[in-house]
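Reminder to self: keep the SMILES exactly as supplied, no canonicalising. Ligand is manganese (II) ion.
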Amino acid sequence: MDRSAPVLSANQGIDDVEVGSLPRLLEAVNFAAEKHKCQRRKDPEATPYINHPIGVARILSSEAGVSDTIALEAAILHDTVEDTDTSFEELETVFGRPVAQVVQECSDDKLLPAAERKRIQILHTPHASVRAKLVKSADKIYNLRDLERVHPVGWTRDRVDAYFLWSAQVCSGLRGVNANLDRLMAEIFDRQGLTKVYLAAENSA
Ligand SMILES: Nc1nc2c(ncn2[C@@H]2O[C@H](COP(=O)(O)OP(=O)(O)O)[C@@H](OP(=O)(O)OP(=O)(O)O)[C@H]2O)c(=O)[nH]1
Ligand SMILES: [Mn+2]
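Structure tokens returned for the bound complex:
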């Protein structure tokens, strides 16, 4: 093999988008893995936190059919600002403004009290960009499936119920961007008896 040949020559015949986007995506996976390396999920097994952002990106690509690189990178990075020492400026420098902006739209302001953050998500979600809606939908689908699987350590039945109810209100404002995601959200809220809340007209844009 001629090692002096440019790397991209090995990809001849493959669509340009694929060649360009895979290294970028792996850069995001590696960045998120480093940032979340000390964090664990709240489940009894204390699953490594990175399973969550990778799973969110997988829902977008494998279940929703999304191939937009900016949305997939933002999915991988979506909790880095909210849950680690990462700044938007850092994301913008490494991944560019469009990715950083989607992450910003998906990040709660941790300086606000929890109840206020939850209220703001219901209010702001219908007005988010299409890419932010894709990432937020996959984020909620992942967390709600996780909640159906096992309860986070210390969560009471009431807290779990409240999370499902609040999520149905948020997800209602996410409808209409991707038919597959709409169906996956609808399936969860059907199982939870929350179809009416999810389909309520006042929650959508
Ligand atoms: N279901 C579930 N969630 C877990 C687990 N471990 C960590 N989480 C995270 O907990 C958050 C939901 O818990 P809350 O009590 O509502 O939020 P908070 O920790 O940020 O205050 C989610 O954050 P998020 O991704 O930022 O989403 P969201 O709160 O904006 O929906 C979710 O990713 C787990 O084992 N199961
Ligand atoms: Mn998340």
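Points to follow up:
Confidence is low (pLDDT under 50) at residues 1-14.
Residues 18 and 69 are 9 Å apart (CA to CA).
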